[in-house]
Amino acid sequence: MENKNDDKLDELQQALDDNEYDIENYDRLIQYMQVYEEDEPWKWQTIDAIYEQKAQYFTLKLHELTSWILVKQKVDEGELLLFYGDAALNYYNIDMFKSYLNLLLENAMGETDHDFYLSEISEFMKIAVYDFENSNILWNLLIDHIKQHDSDNIAKLKGIYIKRLTYPHKELDESFNEYSSFISAHDPSNYEIELQNANKIYQSTKKLQPHYEKYESQIKENNQPHVWINYMSSVFKYSKTKNINEILPIFERAIANDETWTEEWETVWISIIYIIFSQDEIDTTNLQRILSKYLRTFPNSPCAYAENIRNSNLKQYKKICNRIDKIKFKDSVDYQKWKLVVLAMIQFENINKTEETIDKLITNLKAHANYALENNDLMHSVEKLIISLFTELGFQELAIELLKKMFDKFKEQVDVWLFGINYYKNDSDVNEIRELFNRALSNASMLDKPDKLTEEYLLFEQLNGDINSYRKATVKCNEAMIKAIKSKNENVIVEEVIKPKPQKKRKHEEEITRSREDYTIEVKNLPNTINEIEVKTFLEDCGTINNVSLIEKKDCKKAIIEFSNQQSVFAALIKNHKKIQGNEIEVTKLQENILFINNYPNDFNEDDLKSEFSKFGPIIDIRFPRQRQQQNKKRFCYLQFEFSNDAQKAILEYNGKEYIDKQSNRKYKWDVKISRPKERREREPPKEKDSKPKPHVKLTSMVPNNIKRRKQLNI
């Protein structure tokens, strides 16, 4: 072996020693060692040690476990027994556990090993008994083992058969028939009594079967995160014991494949974590196990770091912070993701502060605030939390200093001004608050929500001022709105005169990239009294809402909500089974309920299309996207049904259906399919000529109605 190979090995090992949180350091070293020329024991011992270290910080994929097993065989086959046992429990892998049991049998020496075999099955079955799909595999292993080693113990076998009947599982009918045969063969004199008792248990469990079969069927048809989430939520909701073990097999099956290690599937992890949080007595053992595995599986997820931080002790927190620093996580993600981690860090450090750590906490808060100011988070969650903490800790001067920085840096953001004004209301007199409103209005030409600021100012004067101060405020608000409107109009003119084409192109692209199909959820069982604003308020922490449609039902309402991104959808799905005004809601992701209707008859308008398709079911919306060219317009639209089944019915009847166009007397075919955003650019709908002139765009006044009315009344 040449010296350069030794140098390379030293270089790779040093890289791993320097940063154990970089997964590539492990992979490069393992790859190098596997092609190493020498086939000496130290080589495989080294690879074994690398895998063992990697497993402390990262969840190994199934193919890596297989490779590690091969390495273990070369190092010490005696270790395989322990390895299989640990891996089966950590990964909840039935096949791996069966291999572990087979190894136990191969190494069995006597009665002690028989007892150990039973104890290992019993330990694994604490979770496995709740596995509707696979539990019977282990029941059969247990029964077969007892029949082989303790066949005369009829009472013990009876107990196991009966216990199996108490758990819903796929082969429940077969289990009952098997018990019937067993009693017939071994206790025929008591057959009738035994079967009567067993039948009561069987019938009780049988009632629960459809509840599981419903989701098992959905999983086979559509293996998506929301199905697993609903499965877990439903089982836990109707559980009498609220035992997390009842849903652990569902969770472990959901995440079993490497393909689920994506951002979309993170919602399954977050869902089970929140289910644990809902327990009266939180199962901290399972919580810590899941959180640790969550971070090892998603080492670049802000949610994984945030949840681990919130539920860690001081020692664990230091390790997490060390990991964050070593991988330079703050620099590798955008601020919106980093914000989740920062908020968790601030919460942890504040809860665990002592007199000795207060100075460090203040230093960290200042650093977090400065970084937040640099990144202009529109919600300003970090700055607002830090201002509250500064005040609570008795450092009000630091709170005011940060607030002033926000006023200077974000002077165009009305929400920042209103937050500051509300803060000052606690310790300032009316004139100081009035001065802040006037200072904010002085930026009228750049304010993002001038109407909101003026309404708050006038409301403030109504509550705290007199008729004279109210009149003065009305004048100032009116002047500010005029400046704001003038500024908006000037910006519109600049856009139209200087850059007309890019402006139109951008609007068209926004229409294309906006993905209602992927970012829409359905919320059922809303109170009849709820309105759109209350729905938005309930979901505002999930993300930006593009649209809300409320639908009246017999004794409740439901809402169709369109978000702006996938992350918001994930956050909203977590609210499943939450309560609004006493109603427990059901939140699901809407899928395949929007049709792309292309090549419809030339003389059809919106009412014609609604009339044509409403026979299949309720229609939520129909959209005719903006087209850049009024000449040669394309005939297509997007029609949204309330139910996906209705959309499928429409496709079956209309897609490919022929008709004669009345204007051209030519034969055409309807093109009706599920709308899929990624395919939109490939579509070429037929064009039609349109000689109608472009409509004249009229700018509407931005002056709020209350100000207009006051002007009319000369207030």
UniProtKB/TrEMBL annotation:
CDD domains xrefs: RRM1_Prp24 (cd12296)
Pfam families: RRM_1 (PF00076)
Keyword Repeat belongs to the record: yes
Stretches the record annotates as Disordered: 671-715
Alphabetical list of SMART domains matching this protein: RRM (SM00360)
Keywords, ordered alphabetically: Repeat, RNA-binding
Ranges for domain RRM: 519-592, 593-675
Compositional bias ranges of the Basic and acidic residues kind: 671-693
Gene3D superfamilies: 3.30.70.330, Tetratricopeptide repeat domain
Record's keyword annotation contains Ribosomal protein: no
Protein name from the UniProt record: RRM domain-containing protein
Organism annotation: Candida verbasci
Lineage of origin: Eukaryota, Fungi, Dikarya, Ascomycota, Saccharomycotina
